[in-house]
Amino acid sequence: xxxxxxxxxxxxxxxxxxxxxxxxxxxxxVGVAGGTDVGALGTxxxxxxxxxxxxxxxxxxxxxxxxxxxxxxxxxxxALDDLAPxxxxxxxxxxxxxxxxxxxxxxxxxxxxxLGGVLAASETPPGRDKLPDDWPADGAAPPTVPGAxxxxxxx
Length: 155
What we know:
Elements: E1 3-8, H1 11-24, E2 30-34, H2 45-58, E3 63-67, H3 72-81, H4 85-88, E4 91-93, H5 98-110, H6 115-122
Parallel strand pairs: 1-2, 1-3, 3-4
Helix pairs in contact: 1-5, 2-3, 5-6
């Protein structure tokens, strides 16, 4: 089994995402490291280290770390420096988006995928995103469906 470690600036955001993953992929170990030791927004290398070590203890096949923002990478790097070489060899860091990557990774991990397979699932291939292919490239709202009544959600 592969575990996930969610690293971010907001503990509330990470707890919510962990709850979502527990429903989507029950049984997949998910550690979180968010916020600072004084309860502020931010990241903490000691918290990240603890989450990674806990995940590795729960998952013999290793752990995938997902970050909310690039600035979390510095704290992650400091935490990874404290791992023994054997521990560090079982950790991979995803370049994927936090929410989408975590959901895809958790589903893959629940299915028994390898560390490399879970990492690959967590990273969105170039040119792929969450919007349908026919969504306007400029980000504008798509045209309305012909004949669809306006205000139908307000009933």
